[in-house]
Design brief:
alpha/beta; globular; four-stranded parallel beta sheet
Length: about 220
């Protein structure tokens, strides 16, 4: 079993020992040995390494990792320092600036969010180089659906940010009586003007957290 942290390993023990996950592992062994796969196998579970289960206050759901060299780092929407900020993240920064006056950053590294309890989770955690969605339907969805369901079942007053059709399809896994689910268009340039811009989700997230005696997210944190 790949180790994440003791806490996550215990919570996800059933999933790690399932037939679905064991098949996924065999698939990944072949993929990593025969193709260029992103992120590094050591970074696959970074979202959970940076954000403990106990600390999760927000879930920001992405689709699959960036598929160009040097971009994917195991955190949805995030890229390492020194890498050009991807267009979707540029639009997220624009929305943040419009909502809360947060200066538009030049770095696309979102570790500062993850360390505050923002789980930057993709629904698929690996991808072949230059082939978006190439690992879709290979077994990751079973695992990440379980992560979402565990958070919904075991925690209270978490904000789930579901942007775009892929993320919004996961809302059936979430107990809306216990949590806040915010839905809108994806921040990509193709759809941001269809409902992402002006969504107010960053502000609404913090208002909800404060109303439930939780610390708001400092969205400007590096």
């Amino acid at each position: 079993m790949i180790k994440i942290t003791k806490e996550w390993d215990e919570i996800l023990a059933e999933e790690f020992n399932s037939e679905e996950y064991l098949r996924l592992r065999e698939f990944l062994k072949t993929e990593y040995s025969t193709h260029t796969i992103y992120p590094s196998m050591y970074d696959i579970f970074n979202s959970m390494k940076y954000t403990s289960f106990e600390d999760v206050r927000v879930v920001l759901l992405g689709q699959d990792p960036y598929h160009n060299e040097g971009q994917a780092m195991g955190l949805s929407f995030s890229v390492p320092d020194g890498v050009d900020v991807p267009p979707s993240l540029v639009n997220m920064y624009k929305e943040l600036n419009a909502e809360l006056g947060v200066p538009i950053r030049k770095s696309g590294n979102l570790v500062g969010w993850a360390k505050q309890g923002v789980l930057l989770l993709n629904t698929v955690l690996t991808v072949r180089a230059h082939q978006a969605n190439s690992h879709k339907g290979k077994g990751w969805e079973y695992f990440t659906d379980a992560v979402i369901k565990k958070i919904s079942d075991k925690k209270e007053n978490v904000v789930f940010l579901l942007w775009g059709g892929n993320a919004r399809s996961k809302k059936t896994l979430i107990d809306k009586e216990k949590h806040l689910v915010l839905e809108c268009a994806h921040p990509s340039p193709l759809s941001a003007y269809n409902g992402f811009f002006g969504c107010g989700h960053f502000k609404k997230t913090n208002e909800y957290l404060i109303s439930h005696d939780k610390r708001p997210i400092d969205w400007s944190a590096l």
